[in-house]
Amino acid sequence: MDGNNYNNNNQNGSSDSFYSYNNGSQSNQQTEHANEGNVNQYNNSYQNTNSYSQNAGYQQGSAYQNGTYQNTGYQQNGAYQNGGYQNTNGAFYQNAQTTGKKQKKKRERKPGGFGTKLAKCAAIALVFGLVSGTAFEGVHLVSSKAFGNDETAVSDSGSQNALTKADNKVEATSTSSNYVATDVSDIVSSVMPSIVAITNVSETEYQSFWGGMPQTYESTSCGSGIIVSQDDNYLYVATNNHVVNGANSLTVTFNDESTVSAEVKGTDPSTDLAVIRVALSSIESDTMNNIKVATLGDSDSLKAGNSCIAIGNALGYGQSVTVGYISALNRQVSVSDSESDTSYTADLIQTDAAINPGNSGGALLSANGEVIGINSVKYSDTSVEGIGYAIPINTAAPIINDLITKEKVDESDSAYLGIAGVDVTDDVAKTYNMPSGVYVAQVTGGSAAEQAGIQKGDIITEFDGKLIGSMEELSSTMEYYKAGTTVDVKIERSTNGEYQEQTISVTLGKKN
């Protein structure tokens, strides 16, 4: 029956009682309508409806009047009248069934009738079953002992378990009694003082509707950071490169809502990592007493299914907490940053803990509060939910340490390679079947590159052990090297249409 039909036919009574019953609710409204003796309500919806009552035979046919509902005891002796259905929702059915049809009286049964015979038969069958069952089990036991085929695998209740009776069993999965915390407030309160919010104020260039020279406007973006180190003069905060990229000014907001200025200490675009530093002299004493340096964990010991916690400045509203699990490890993810026009591929931790804009650079924590990753990427698609990524802390820690300890070289002593290059992004590399890196478009005569044997057409992929994906990465990396330093540079050179890797030792020159 169409529900709309039923509702329309029931409007003369009460349409509410249809929806109440249909939804399974035991409403007072339903009982109230029935007890008022609203026979028209029932007649309209059950008796007068062609599709349900008269033509379908539900009331006048065998199923309702002459069959199970009325005459077989279902209504009078069963669940409708004497059972729990009347006492809960029963008023609706009992009173609403006053359609003028006379109900038959219950026939009395004499002692010693069919019931007595049935009981005797059941008793005889039971005795026969017990005797035959015992005999069969005895024979089975004797034969098992005699022929060495003892299938006695039983469950805890003592009955044989059909799922474990095979001779060559595949090992069953084990269970764990490890306690999983559902309240992480203690961990969060301990770690939160080591997490900061970062605000990046930069200039964004855009093309005017009317054409002409490009215009610029000041834009603000937000991210997160983790306090990882401190020396006598500075507090060092690890974050993502894309959080601080292009910054004209940076500010850091601590857990107590105090805000101070910061500066970029170093960046590594190839891994999307950066370190910023805050002068201790700019931090008030109360804030110094409140903040903490984060404890780093071991991301190599992680397993899929481990609990984790993400803390970060989601949407720029301030620090927030999400929880989830380690979904997978060593996920190879290709990431493109449209703002810096760079791309890189990395092995990341996948998690279903919510990672939202502003969480970048924040901490992914283990269940005991150690930093196991730096939140970096969220897979954003209408068909995808619960896929975020973090840089493993074991990957990030040595890079962060280098960014903290290495100092940029004064421009007068800075190193010079002597090439002009073009970025080979991952998309370009796939399209033209070539390695990602920096395509050497020109080599300056007499430069360090020429003297070392680097040629036009080579693709630089590594510089002193660091992956290189763009000219920007190569230039920013060389800022930490003095002229005269010797480094290994990995290149891919095309030979007979195929690229082959070579390592070339280069003594860096001086620009001037």
UniProtKB/TrEMBL annotation:
Q: Where is the PDZ domain?
A: 403-495
SUPFAM superfamilies for the chain? PDZ domain-like, Trypsin-like serine proteases
Where are stretches of biased composition, namely Polar residues?
Answer: 13-32
- Reading the lineage from the top rank, the first entry is Bacteria
> What are the GO BP annotations of this UniProt entry?
proteolysis
User: Sorted alphabetically, which keywords does the UniProt record give?
Assistant: Hydrolase, Protease
Q: Where is the composition biased (Low complexity)?
A: 1-12, 38-55
One MF term from GO for this chain? Answer: serine-type endopeptidase activity
Return the similarity comment. Answer: Belongs to the peptidase S1C family.
- Please state what the protein is called: Serine protease Do-like HtrA
Question: In which organism is this protein found?
Answer: Roseburia intestinalis L1-82
